[in-house]
Amino acid sequence: MSFSRIATNIRYYREKCQLTQKQLSEELNVSRPVIAKWENGTVTPDLKSLIELRRVFKVSIDEIVGFETTIPQEPSKGYPLSMNLISKDDWEVIDYLLKNRLLKEQLVRMIGLPLNKQKFIHSMLRSIVNEIKRI
């Protein structure tokens, strides 16, 4: 379980439900700073809070904590037939991009760059990830 994934998912589902931190805090009977701490990963919600988040967001606890991604039950509905060939890893990447708007925006910008600059970014990203995994 990744605590950063929990934080990302709480923010994602709160925004998807069009709730402010204040509105969610009132719904859960907690303070707004508690919601902020959950969303920045400083604190993780307890089980009681996860159950309440599940109720408010209308998703499973597994989706909130990141054990399960939001994958369509029937991928062929609304998607080209070839979408059925997408792996679970691909769906997790799609789910991650949907929940991390800023990264998605940067990737869209990167796609517009010349191929040689895209390859340079790929190389930098690979180096950064490898270095962080090493630490």
TrEMBL record:
Entry coiled-coil feature ranges: none
Gene3D superfamilies in the cross-refs: lambda repressor-like DNA-binding domains (1.10.260.40)
GO MF assignments: DNA binding
InterPro entries, alphabetized: Cro/C1-type_HTH, Lambda_DNA-bd_dom_sf
Entry keyword set: DNA-binding
Domain HTH cro/C1-type: 10-64
Keyword Glycoprotein: no
Official protein name in the record: Helix-turn-helix domain-containing protein
Organism: Aquibacillus salsiterrae
